Amino acid sequence: MSQLDRLPHEGEWKEWLEHPTTLAVHRLLRQWKAEAQGAWAAGRFQLDGDPVQTTNMNAKVLGNLGTIEAVLDMTYESLVGELSEE
Fold first, then answer.
1. How far apart are CA 72 and CA 30, in angstroms?
2. Which end of the chain is more exposed for a tag (fewer CB within 10 A), N or C?
3. pTM higher than 0.85 for the full model?
4. Cα separation, 59 vs 8, whole angstroms
């Protein structure tokens, strides 16, 4: 089994979660989320005259926000559960 195929044990997950790089990435993700939410609230995703492009842009942003939230909310159990289902 290669290192890439092995699931981390819970201690490794906790070390990764508390690592300065992980903390910085999570901070950046929270910043991106807040910026996107602020831009949406300010109407910056309302594309003048084109409701289809506006709908597509909003769907894209919502998808990105969903991914960001999934990463920020990830737990050890959810990681192992998702990867075990492969």
1. 8
2. C
3. no
4. 33
